[in-house]
Description:
Blueprint: H1 11-23, E1 30-31, H2 32-41, H3 46-59, E2 62-65, E3 68-71
Antiparallel strand pairs: 1-3, 2-3
Amino acid sequence: MFNTDDRPLGSLAEDAYDHLCAAIDPAEGITVEDARAQFREADFPADDADYALDRLLNRGYLYEVDGRLFVTERDETDT
């Protein structure tokens, strides 16, 4: 789980996260390349997409298993 009260994620990473949440099947995940393709379709510049993915992974909003990205469950107290 992650807690959104720590530090602001930033608008670019927030937009990327919202976009990926809609694209990622919680049971299947999405490949990193498919995530990048999702960003290209949403007109994210390549550098911004890479930055956002890195930030989301480093901050715990996403996690990677065997080359697939999954959304980390939100802390229930974040409502």
